[in-house]
Design brief:
single chain; mainly alpha; globular
């Protein structure tokens, strides 16, 4: 068989690792989201009052950053880097070891936060950092084997470096909780940690991957590489300027904020442009999630620097759960069906069997339920934090759990989708 022609926009699914390598990360991330919503339901009064350093806030934050967000993004990188850069994952076994180390570390860390046990926090943080170094080594060797580059792939190693820096910074802060060599963690130390994680790691990954995937899923024309380069480059430069400005002065800090805000608003505009210029036909659920998530990005960007402290916390929840979380949940509704579809039907033995479309792998009502509950839940939680109303947080957590249950049922249908003569991933029927 002749080698396919490779261009900057070519997707080579055959280069992806085995289905279960990224899928285990995805499922682990969704379990972390369930734990996050349960914790928010149980500890709503703590999230509404004195939220900065209490156990509930730290548990919820890390269940998102290291759980839902971290595990899903890492799984996506294991899946996407070989496909986008025409490489092969260096080691699937190393990826599975990374998952085990990361999962144990996250469990210990969250348990430590809930019990305020600094030894468990530091131990869990050390394991998470160890797993991240395995992750960086595995991807670094995978990047090294890349046979072609594009701007989407070029920003991914930059995001991984921001991720490693976030964890090192966080590990130092965890040790400080035990030994107090920094003192009270406020101001620059905490802002730097959040900037590296939310802007450098998550947002840069969303920009680099989203500007590739959203036009594919819409479907629409590929975005010009110079726009991708300007958006991702502006965000990365903005993060570095913010970090420098935390210690060198407010002018540099504001310059970094303006750069980051401009890059994220540009991303929002490009998502809207893709929607307006897509081909006619039903709108994919991943695009519905991405559009709504992009809308959650605008209020924090415009109001965060000038809002009162309580509203800054609420806007941060809107940014994290609405923009980052909503984008992740939407992308999974397309990525997982595509992975399962390839696994089931690409090399099927019964050539006469009808091959389903991706949207036929699950019933739309469950995706609609997830879409129409997740963002109202996020809004209620964000308002509850901003207004210091625990009842709003409780209501948002309950609605979020209902949506997550529907989302999980849709994924169950995808994973159990069996056609006659086709082996299933799991025993049982649809």
């Amino acid at each position: 068989m002749s080698t396919p022609k490779i261009g900057p926009d070519t997707i080579i699914p055959e280069r992806a690792p085995h289905l279960w390598v990224p899928l285990r990360f995805f499922l682990g991330g969704l379990l972390s989201l369930a734990a996050l919503l349960i914790t928010a339901y149980q500890k709503a009064p703590l999230l509404a009052h004195d939220y900065l350093h209490n156990a509930a806030t730290l548990a919820v934050t890390h269940l998102f950053t290291l759980g839902l967000g971290g595990m899903v993004v890492m799984g996506a990188l294991y899946q996407m880097v070989p496909v986008l850069l025409y490489s092969t994952l260096f080691s699937e076994r190393l990826a599975n070891i990374h998952l085990a180390v990361h999962g144990i570390g996250l469990t210990l860390m969250v348990t430590g936060f809930r019990r305020w046990n600094t030894i468990l926090i530091a131990t869990g943080g050390g394991l998470v950092l160890t797993g991240a170094l395995l992750f960086a080594c595995n991807l670094g060797l995978t990047f090294r084997k890349a046979e072609r580059w594009n701007w989407h792939g070029a920003f991914m190693p930059v995001a991984v470096l921001f991720y490693i820096a976030t964890l090192i910074w966080g590990f130092v802060l965890a040790l400080n909780q035990r030994y107090g060599f920094i003192g009270e963690v406020e101001g620059a130390a905490l802002t730097g940690h959040l900037t590296l994680g939310f802007l450098g790691w998550f947002s840069l990954m969303i920009v680099s991957a989203g500007l590739k995937l959203v036009p594919m899923f819409a479907p629409a024309k590929t975005l010009p590489p110079r726009l991708v380069a300007a958006t991702g480059g502006g965000l990365a430069a903005g993060v570095l300027a913010i970090l420098a400005g935390l210690w060198l002065g407010r002018p540099l800090l504001w310059a970094g904020y303006v750069l980051s805000a401009a890059a994220l608003l540009t991303y929002t505009g490009l998502i809207g442009y893709t929607y307006l210029h897509r081909r006619t036909g039903p709108l994919d659920f991943s695009i519905r999630f991405s559009l709504t998530a992009a809308g959650c990005l605008v209020p924090p960007i415009l109001a965060l620097p000038w809002a009162p402290r309580e509203w800054q916390a609420g806007l941060t929840f809107l940014f994290v759960l609405g923009f980052i979380g909503g984008t992740i949940l939407g992308m999974l509704l397309r990525i997982i069906p595509f992975m399962v579809w390839l696994h089931r039907f690409r090399n099927r033995e019964h050539k006469q069997e009808k091959v389903p479309f991706l949207h036929e792998l699950f019933q739309p009502r469950f995706a609609w339920t997830a879409l129409l509950t997740w963002f109202p839940a996020v809004l209620l939680i964000s308002l509850g934090v901003a207004l210091e109303q625990g009842l709003l947080i409780t209501a948002g957590a309950i609605i979020g759990m209902i949506g997550l249950a529907a989302y999980g049922w849709a994924l169950r249908q995808i994973l159990h989708h069996v056609k006659p003569g086709t082996p299933a991933l799991f025993p049982g029927r649809k």
